[in-house]
Structures are given as C-alpha cells and as structure tokens.
Description:
The protein is of the alpha+beta class and 791 residues long.
Amino acid sequence: xxxxxxxxxxxxxxxxxxxxxxxxxxxxxxxxxxxxxxxxxxxxxxxxxxxxxxxxxxxxxxxxxxxxxxxxxxxxxxxxxxxxxxxxxxxxxxxxxxxxxxxxxxxxxxxxxxxxxxxxxxxxxxxxxxxxxxxxxxxxxxxxxxxxxxxxxxxxxxxxxxxxxxxxxxxxxxxxxxxxxxxxxxxxxxxxxxxxxxxxxxxxxxxxxxxxxxxxxxxxxxxxxxxxxxxxxxxxxxxxxxxxxxxxxxxxxxxxxxxxxxxxxxxxxxxxxxxxxxxxxxxxxxxxxxxxxxxxxxxxxxxxxxxxxxxxxxxxxxxxxxxxxxxxxxxxxxxxxxxxxxxxxxxxxxxxxxxxxxxxxxxxxxxxxxxxxxxxxxxxxxxxxxxxxxxxxxxxxxxxxxxxxxxxxxxxxxxxxxxxxxxxxxxxxxxxxxxxxxxxxxxxxxxxxxxxxxxxxxxxxxxxxxxxxxxxxxxxxxxxxxxxxxxxxxxxxxxxxxxxxxxxxxxxxxxxxxxxxxxxxxxxxxxxxxxxxxxxxxxxxxxxxxxxxxxxxxxxxxxxxxxxxxxxxxxxxxxxxxxxxxxxxxxxxxxxxxxxxxxxxxxxxxxxxxxxxxxxxxxxxxxxxxxxxxxxxxxxxxxxxxxxxxxxxxxxxxxxxxxxxxxxxxxxxxxxxxxxxxxxxxxxxxxxxxxxxxxxxxxxxxxxxxxxxxxxxxxxxxxxxxxxxxxxxxxxxxxxxxxxxxxxxxxxxxxxxxxxxxxxxxxxxxxxxxxxxxxxxxxxxxxxxxxxxxx
Length: 791
C-alpha cells in the first residue's frame, strides 16, 4: 500500500515542481526556483526508494504483488531476480522514470551554472509528470488480489510461486542491456529540454554549446545499448546474426539516428551559426522519436509483428502514451514555429566545397535512413489504419535502402574531413581525395582478388576503406597536435570497422547443415565435429529440462569445445523450443554451432499406434505380433530415480509358431503445461534383438478400452546412437563488429570530455551581457572558442 500511495504522491509532486519552475522563470523568482530544486531532489529520492522497494519485494518473493508474481519465481538466482525489476511494463517504466530523475539531479547544477535551470527544468518536470502518470496507470505495487478480483481471488489467495522470467531473458546481458538502453532514453530528453529553454529564452546559439556534451552522451549510451542488444541476440538466439530489423529493435534505432544527425548539425551551427531552425527541429524530433518508439513498443500494436513488444497495457496507459507523444510534439513544433522569424539571423548558403556543406549533406543522409526505418517500422500500424492486414515489411526493404545510404554516408563523412570550414582550395582538396582514394581502391582490389565478387559488397568496401583511411590520417595528425580533438575520428574509425565486420561476415561466412552421430567424428567443411553427448543444466527450474549438447571442433590438431543448448519450457506452453548456440569466440573468426532439433535415436522405426486389446505386426519383423493388454497405472510402477512418473504397456508378443510372451514396455513421463513427454525404457522381444519402446499414451477415461499408445522399435543388439542436427558456421572477422562499436563509443567519450570543458569555459560568461542573442551579434565567448570543430 505504501508503494501505491508513494507513486500517486510522486505524480502530484512532479506537477507542483513543474509549475514552480515555470513561475520561477516567468516571474524571475530565484527563491521559488530554489524551492523547486529541493522538491526535485525529493522526487528523485522517492523514485529511488520506490525502485528499492520493488527490488526488495522481488527478492523476498512477495507474490501477493501482481508484478512480482508475473515476472519472478523462487528458482531465479539473485541477478535474475534483480533483472525482474525491469522485465515487465511497470518495472521498466519505473526504471526509466528513476533514471530521468537521477540525470535531472546531475543536470541541475550544470544548468544552474549555465543560467538555464528554470526554463529547462519546467520542461524536464513536464516529462516526469507524464512518466509518473504512467506509473499511476501501470503501478508496480498493485496487489495480486486486486488484479484478479474478477476471477474470485481474495486477499488470502497468495500464490506459492511466481510465473517466472521468460527463459530467453535468463542471460547475464539482461543485467546490463536494458539499464544502458533506458539510460540512453533518459539522456535523450536533455537536448530537447535545452532546445526548448533556448526557444523560451530566445537564445538560439548558446544552447548548442550547453547541450552538446549531453547530446553526445545520450547518443553514445543509446548506441552502445542498441549494439549490446545485437550482441545478446547473436550470443543467445541461435540464428547467427545480430540485427534482424525487428520493428521493436528499429524503434530504438530511429531516435539514435536522429540524434547522430543532430550532433553533426549542432557542430555546424557552433562553428558557422547556421542551421539554427534545423537544430531546433532535430532536437524536438530526437525526443519525440523516443516517445514514438515507446508507444510502438508498449502499446501492444506491434504484438503480432515483433518478438519483443510488450502486451497491451490497457486503455488508460495506451492513451497516456499517446498523449505523452502528442503533447511534446505539439509543444516543440509550436515553439519552433512561434520563434521562426527570430531565428532567421545570419542566414547564409554553404559552399559545396566546405566542411559545413558536407556535414549538412551527411546529416541529411542519416535522416533519410531514419525516415526509411520509421516507415518500415510503422508499416504494420499504417496497414491497420487503412484497413489492410497488419504485416511487417521484409528485411530486404531495409537492406536495399541502406545499400545506397551507407556507402553515401561513409563517403560524405570522409569528404567532410578533407574539406575546411568556410572554403577549401581546390588543389588541396583534390590532392587529399586522390591520396586516400587510391589507398581505398587498392585495398578493395585486394579484397576482390581474395574472393569478394558481389558488387554491393565491393561498393561498401571501398567506401569503408575511404572513410577509414581519411579518419586514421586525420586522427593521427591531431593526435600529435591536439589529442583532445580525437573523439570524432575515433568514432568514425569504429563505424568503418563495424562495416568491415558486416562485409566480411556476409561474404565469407561458411554455413553447413550437419547431422552428428554421437562419438563419431564427422567432416563438416574444413573442420571435424564430434557430438559427445548431453548433460542437464539449470536443474532448479521445474518447468523445463534444459540440456546442453557437447560438440568438439577440430582442425589441424587444434581443438575447441562448444555447448549449444536446446530445451522446451512450460513458459510458452512448449509450443516451440528455446535454442542457444555454442560459440568458440576468436579474433579471426567465430565458430558458431546452432542446434536445429533435439537428438534422435538412429535406427528407430516410425511410431505405430495400438489400441487396448488391439494387435499389430512388428514393423521390423512382420512374423511377430504384439497385443496390448492394458496400461499400468503410475502407482503400480512408482517413480524413476530422477523422480519422474512411470507407466507401462503390458504387451503379449506372439511369434510365427504361436508362442506367447508377456512384455512390459516402461516409459518415464515428464509433465508439462502443453502435455506430457515420454522417455521409453527399451523392452526386448524374446527370441529377437528387437526392442520395443512406449513413446505416447492417450488415455480415454470414459472408455478405457479405447485408450491408445504409440510404440517404436529398434535393434537393441547394436549400440543406440543419438544423432544431433546442427548448423555449423564459420564467421570471419565478426569481432570487427564488436570492436567497432567499442571504438565508436570510446570516440564519443573523448568528445564528451572535450565539450564539457568548452561549455564550462563559456559557462563563466553565462550571466553577462555577452550571451549570444537573436540579433545575430557574436558574443565574446563565441569568439573565444577558436578550436576547429570536427564531426
């Protein structure tokens, strides 16, 4: 009850704080701003307290709370119990809200020093108003009996265990990926609120310097979070890739692309004082796309077209999400339009042979990518609106679009670095392009000789080499003169490396479908694979029998062991298996073994159905018959050593001479929500080497004489061999993808530190009359920044 009351109280506090900040700004009341500051700190403390309470409830297995029941269980280890905190709608909203408040606490002294606190925080507070209202609608402290009252559940009805966590989330990355992604989402609000504050203050230039470090931070963190999700998919899902253009994956990518474009146009404005309205629009759009992605993911409208989307949150939460998005879209566009005449200052056309022109073209290309991804992601919604079947666009749509856009972005990026601000001598530009271009073409020619024949891959290769050579050369020059300015070049190097990883993986991956008999070395491509057997893991979970399958990989005397996993779970009612690949990680290549099916026994016949009192002929020896007398009951057979229930088919075997023998074909039964599973114990048919196994029982309680069973047969004189079906892939240089992402984020870190220092230098002048204004006069602080901005 305390948690529910606190959530409701927090909504009221955020509304009051937002109003106080608005009054503090418009009435120029510093004391009111001070009181609002204290209240905001209290809000952050209360949100941390709410999150802590939820985590404690989960760890203590308080299944009287609906959220705890829905996303945790007593079997989960501590790290997965903590991850349960944000694995559902309510908990993830709480995490997002808490992170927004924590970033706000860090932001407050910075904004205050820059003379931006009150106008910025009134918008920031409004964001928190909507987030806390969402928590009111999707309260993580709702009681189990409240949620299921319509089913006759009372206060006394407390479940003994929870439903548990989706088995796909039973991974170490669940503790890292969502918090980083939500931190990126939370940080994306900062550039928006600074832009809105700039519009309110009619300060159309200095907000760029103030917001730039935070925009870089949000872009870096969100980008890192997105690629962590790709790594998680590669490591866990078993389909061999890291990006599938799933609509919900795309919904995180869209705001990141807009933010990347914003970073580059902000640099253009910082240097040239151009693109003023463009930056305002992009700052609005970046945040609105965060809200749009949240709406797509959380509203349930993509539920039929994405493997990631949440279930329908209910009408109240749906309309709050929609209002959240529309409110900030309207506020942002209204402020931009109302100030558009003020922002028409120092307008100038960029010469094509300048860095600012190329940066603008590059940003436009990135935005084109964002537009196409938005169209593809929204396609199911568009189809539903016009009354057509709700289907997602194919992966080919995204690939074909980016076959054009990615090389163009890489080339434009490289050209922008070869150009200077304002103007570039033609001879200097041609010399720079020629030097880097020759190296790129030569490197691509080598790749073609080594086997890349696909035209698209060659175009990507030459553009990536061009970008890599230019960034490496420029980065080396700045490393010797001004290491603090390395950030952009390092980030761009990372992107080029990522593209190289994609190209080499796409063109050189060798994939083989293989059937591996147990303990029999099998040649697969240039490698020898041996299936060694299986073992059960994660035995604490009763809803599944999780097996890992040991596969040895050999080549030229070198050996590696991998352990792919395949199992069925009651969580999805055993409708489809859960697969996890076995990976031998390497710098030069990854060896990737993905299971395709549970092992089967070699030499087993097709199943034959038999009815009680019925007779069948043995498929592998038609001179013999089997008659089913009855099925024994579990109480007759007792339990197996592993605790499983046992039943048996009592059979009468008759040979060609009419001799009869009684046989008991035992089977061990694993119970699940989607029906029982049967593990036969082979029984010998006397006078033969034939074994019979019971693999299914279909009881007819109304008429036991109509009960059915399925029997299978094999030669038990030979060792039974399991056969494990896998897909074996060799993925060359996929490590470049992960190394490229890390390099890109490291470059962002360099830039964040640099621009924080610059903003602090200019912050010292924030309270003077030297602040840039709408009349286009250049302040002393603007002149003081003589560093050449880089992308």
